[in-house]
Amino acid sequence: MSKKNKPGNYSPLVYSTDPNYTPPSEAEEVMETLAIADQPLRVILETKHRAGKTVTIVYGFIGTEDEMNILGKALKNHCGTGGSVKDGEIIIQGDHRQKVFQFLKQKGYNKAKL
Questions:
Q1: What is the pLDDT of residues 45-88, one digit of tens each?
Q2: What are the distances in angstroms from CA 89 to CA 61, 68, 84?
Q3: DSSP readout, 80-105?
């Protein structure tokens, strides 16, 4: 996709004759990460839209994308398998619900549920 077709680069304003005009600045949402003990994580098993393959999904993480990526990488290393982090979910390949749940409890995620 070219740069000019990306959604964030669209501006309807082409030219302004007002000398005092300032373009509106994009206000980014600053999402604070909840404390580890307060994270309401859920661990589920899913096979939908994955050609019959089972995956373990951890969702409910409230925080920044970077911190979710760090947790996803730690979970993948602990389970010894692949996965990804997208759409606010941590996806671990295979049925690793118990391993993931035990890892989260060990790390202090007390509100994690199966």
A1: 999 888 989 999 999 999 999 999 999 999 999 999 999 999 99
A2: 8, 8, 8
A3: TS-EEEETTEEEEESS-HHHHHHHHH
